[in-house]
Design brief:
heterodimer; A: alpha+beta; Ubiquitin-like (UB roll); DNA polymerase, domain 1; 2 domains; 5 helices; B: alpha+beta; Aldehyde Oxidoreductase, domain 4; seven-stranded mixed sheet; five-stranded mixed sheet; 20 helices; 28% helix; globular
Chain lengths: 153, 785
């Protein structure tokens, strides 16, 4: 066990973690933040994408202990006072989700993209989202949503 | 390119009402199976065979049982007493079909890689998985066969020894004089196509939790399923619990595409172990585990022949399929090819038809319905063969299509079913308004003239499909085990809101929104005043669930009929309270009026609840249930156009543009319909260009994880250009047709026809799916460029 300190969605947590615990299970099982989904076991699908120090990270690719001292933002941390984040709002307005399982990871990747590149073109959006698999939407409306969120910002 | 908005009567139906489902999903508050945890819950891990075919000579679970935190571990034999019956196959397609038993754990032999052999149950997920590694199983490996044609050869290893053959069934459909059509034909073409094996890849893995209610023998199963009602009925007979004491709940379900249209061993194991251990038992698959334990799709070898006159009138179609069942028959495994059997003549007026399918056991994960189920295969074969016939005749492929299109509706087609409505010329016309073929051909020619190494190709797919399963009588005639009806209840609560209970079980399709639109318009409520409840056999006990593009055309119509019953009762009550004759009342948008007096359905709901002043004999309350059995299948159609660019030096093939014109009848929510089409196209493009489940000679799944099985990403796909035409279905009051599978049905043929077009100058006549860079490059090399 190792004691780590995580700041998740603005709240500080002191946790005793097994060295082998992946960040995604720390978030889901220890903190009850089940919005971060698990869709694969090979770091392929991106459903578990969160922001670590502001950058999109697949939370199955790092250990909880590696996040010691870092700030983590999950999908639960995006909306403020029940108001959807502009990217969440854009996904709603453009029908950018169907089953909703990839959605938290997809939204977090989009947040990270627009932080780095506020005016991406379609190719840049598609490239930035290639680590996030969606089986329902064919990506069409996800790309539309991200484009519209960028245009509105 | 935006889609034409079609606004029909009412305020909500026909408009893109934003989805009611979205908010909780966007906030990360979805109740997916792995987000549900029960007090005292245990975790199940399944020990799976690493061999495709092996005799199980010993199972020793002692080391696993000895681990602290492991509560139980069992071999298949130790659990045999839990099963009252085999896992279900609901579609014995012929009288003499071979239906081997299929229990949740194998006891004598493992018959595919991933076949479950033993289980471990522990306090924690990781502990169960670690302990599963300690189970010692002695296997005697045996020769395996994974290729569907090799499995029929004499001496091939048998999947089920007791059957004595790998042939599961032979199913035939003959209409007209097909052989004579071929004898008389001026031209014939014969093609062989391979529908590779696919892995559905719903992004949410499967999972289940079972709980026995304390002090009772009532069981509840939460499961990531498309079919809670069918799961309840069938698992009650597997686990031996009366159906009335089993409740099945589908919580938020993260996609299905057919992979969750099934009744699985792990669901039965969770139930049996929860009953045995008196604690809740949960199981969630790892993705790689799901690749061998969740059903696969396709894996069919097709031979199709067309007979035609010299002018190009197609007079006959002959089809012969060899279809992999996998190692066992899952819920509808044998019937999947039959769903395509009726539409191998496509949207063409062809008089003579002969179809034969041989179902074959192989040492592979069972196949079953995957998006389109039989119809993508049929569409692929006929649409590629029509292009081949055009080439043979030296005719334009679009002219050939137009010459053969069915033009009069209703149309009874050679296979015996009747297409309700359609206008195939209009679909193609509309596609050609969006696509300038002459301009494309000029650019294609210009590239060829200057020796560009990047070739362009264009491909068409004009399809009709049958969905909306289905008239119960027809299902019975083709030996399906259940009916095709669905049900809805509308409950107008006294305080101004409505509960809709639906028998459909959405998992991404947006039924909460679309059903609210239908009910709101019929009854004069706002969409937000309607609450749609689904996916729980106790809350919504009547239903046949969601698959085969059936939910709107069956469940949605049941809802519409329930609304008509509400309106009828409301009219009687309004007439009574307003003291006018029923026929004096007008009804519009939920308001009944006669002169200056009126009552809304909301007011009537309160009056029906207080019951202070009801007509003689009227029951209190304003609630109605309708069960609807459709008179026909649903027949959406379309014209899809794919544009590809191929790097002839590397074989890299990219989809660069995709235009889809579909006729799905009247549209309830255009945004949701477009979303269904987008997703279907992407899956079909995945089949054409990227996806393939590959077994090695020993039956190992080489594409055993998401790193080796290529689900398309955003970077591989273009945005899609969609448009619609509309011929309302005359068989239902909303005029709607199914839409969930159209994209997946149409697109593989369009993409592969585009590749054939691009490579025609090189003498390449065909490439198997998926058209990987290696396959394309090899084809070019073999053709000698």
């Amino acid at each position: 066990m190792r004691r780590v300190s995580l700041e998740v969605n603005g709240a500080r947590h002191e946790l005793d973690l097994e060295p082998r615990e992946l960040l995604v299970y720390v978030l889901r099982d220890r903190l009850g933040l089940t919005g971060t989904n698990v869709g694969c076991d090979t770091s392929s699908c991106g459903a578990c994408t969160v922001l670590v120090s502001g950058e999109a990270v697949k939370s199955c690719t790092i250990l909880g202990v590696q996040a010691d001292g870092l700030e983590v933002t999950t999908i639960e941390g995006l909306a403020e006072d029940g108001e959807l984040h502009p990217i969440q709002q854009a996904f709603h307005a453009h029908h950018g989700l169907q089953c909703g399982y990839c959605t938290p990871g997809m939204v977090m990747s989009a947040v990270s993209l627009l932080a780095d590149n506020p005016r991406p073109n379609e190719e840049e959006i598609r490239h930035a989202l290639e680590g996030n698999l969606c089986r329902c939407t064919g990506y069409h409306n996800i790309v539309e949503a991200v484009r519209s969120a960028a245009a509105a910002a | 390119m935006t889609t034409t908005e079609i606004v029909t009567a009412g305020r909500a139906v026909g408009t893109s009402v934003p989805r009611k489902e979205d908010r909780k999903l966007l906030m990360g508050r979805g109740q997916f199976i792995d987000n549900i945890n029960l007090p005292g819950q245990l975790w199940l891990a399944v020990v799976r065979s690493p061999y495709a075919h092996a005799r199980i000579t010993g199972v020793n679970v002692d080391a696993a049982r000895a681990v602290q935190g492991v509560v139980a571990a069992f071999s298949g034999a130790e659990l045999a007493s839990e099963w009252a019956g085999s896992l279900p196959c609901a579609w014995p397609v012929t009288e003499d079909i071979k239906m081997p038993p299929h229990y949740p754990l194998a006891t004598d032999k493992a018959r595919h890689t991933g076949d479950g052999v033993a289980v471990v149950v522990a306090e924690m997920r990781s502990l169960a998985k670690d302990a599963a590694e300690l189970v010692e199983i002695e296997y005697e490996p045996l020769a395996a066969v994974t290729d569907v044609e090799r499995a029929l050869e004499p001496g091939a290893p048998l999947v089920h020894d007791e059957i004595g053959t790998n042939e599961c069934y032979v199913w035939k459909l003959d209409a007209g004089e097909a052989d004579k059509a071929f004898e008389d034909a001026a031209v014939t073409v014969k093609r062989r196509y391979r529908q590779q094996r696919l892995i559905p890849n719903a992004i949410e893995p499967r999972g289940a939790i079972a709980q026995e209610l304390p002090g009772t023998d009532e069981l509840t199963l939460w499961t990531s399923t498309q079919i809670p009602h069918i799961v309840r009925l069938t698992l009650s007979s597997v686990v031996g619990v009366p159906e009335a004491r089993l409740r099945v709940i589908a919580p938020d379900v993260g996609g299905g595409f057919g992979s969750k249209l099934d009744v699985y061993a792990e669901e039965a194991l969770c139930l049996a172990l929860a009953r045995r251990l008196k604690r809740p038992v949960k199981w969630v698959e790892d993705r790689s585990e799901g690749y061998v334990s969740t059903i696969h799709g396709r894996d069919v070898v097709q031979e199709i022949e067309l007979a035609a006159t010299a002018e190009g009138r197609i007079t006959g179609v002959r089809v012969r399929l060899t279809a992999a069942m996998g190692a066992y028959l899952q819920l509808v495994t044998p019937g999947v090819p039959l769903l395509g059997a009726w539409v191998y003549a496509g949207c063409y007026d062809i008089g003579a038809y002969s179809f034969e399918c041989t179902g074959v056991f192989t040492h592979t994960t069972p196949t079953d319905a995957y998006r389109g189920a039989g119809r993508p295969e049929a569409t692929y074969a006929i649409e590629r063969a029509v292009d081949a016939l055009a080439a043979e005749l030296g005719k334009d492929a679009l002219e050939l299509r137009r010459l053969n299109f069915i033009t009069e509706f209703p149309a009874t087609i050679a296979s015996g079913l009747t297409i309700d409505s359609g206008d195939y010329q209009a679909l193609l016309d509309k596609a050609l308004e969006l696509v300038d073929v002459d301009e494309f051909r000029a650019e294609q020619a210009e590239r060829r003239r200057r020796g560009d190494t990047k070739e362009l190709g264009i491909g068409f797919s004009t399809y009709v499909e049958m969905c909306g399963l289905a008239p119960s009588g027809i299902l019975g005639a083709i030996r399906y085990g259940a009916g095709g009806w669905d049900a809805a209840t509308i409950r107008c609560l006294p305080t101004g809101t409505v509960q809709v209970l639906t028998g459909t079980s959405p998992h991404g399709q947006g039924h909460e929104t679309s059903w609210s639109q239908i009910a709101a318009d019929e009854l004069g409520y706002d969409v937000d005043e309607i609450e749609v409840l689904h996916g729980d056999t106790t809350v919504s006990p009547l239903g046949m669930d969601t698959y085969g593009s059936r939910s709107l055309t069956v469940g949605g119509i049941a809802l519409h009929r329930a609304a008509q019953k509400i309106v009828a009762k409301a009219r009687t009550l309004a007439a009574h309270q307003l003291e006018v004759g029923e026929d004096e009342l007008t009804h519009e948008g939920g308001t009944f009026a006669a002169g200056d007096r009126s009552m809304t359905v909301k007011e009537i709901a309160l009056a029906a609840w207080t019951a202070h002043n009801l007509p003689e004999g009227m029951e209190p309350g304003l609630e109605a249930t309708a069960v609807y059995d459709p008179p026909n299948f649903s027949w959406p159609a379309g014209a899809h156009v794919a544009f590809v660019e191929i790097d002839t030096e590397t074989g890299d093939t990219r989809l660069v543009r995709y235009v889809a014109v579909d006729d799905v009848g009247r549209v309830v929510n255009p945004a949701i319909v477009d979303g269904q089409v987008h997703g279907g196209i992407a899956q079909g493009v995945g089949q054409a260009l990227y996806e393939e489940a590959i077994y090695d000679e020993d039956g190992m799944l080489l594409t055993g994880s998401m790193t080796s099985y290529l689900v398309p990403t955003a970077a591989e796909l273009p945005s899609f250009e969609l448009a619609r035409t509309e011929t309302p279905s005359p068989t239902n009051p909303l005029g709607v047709k199914g839409v969930g599978e159209t994209g997946a049905i149409a697109s593989p043929a369009a993409v592969m026809n585009a590749i054939a077009d691009a490579l025609a100058p090189y003498g390449v006549t065909d490439i198997d799916m998926p058209a990987t860079p290696e396959r394309v490059w090899r084809a070019l090399e073999e053709a000698g460029r």
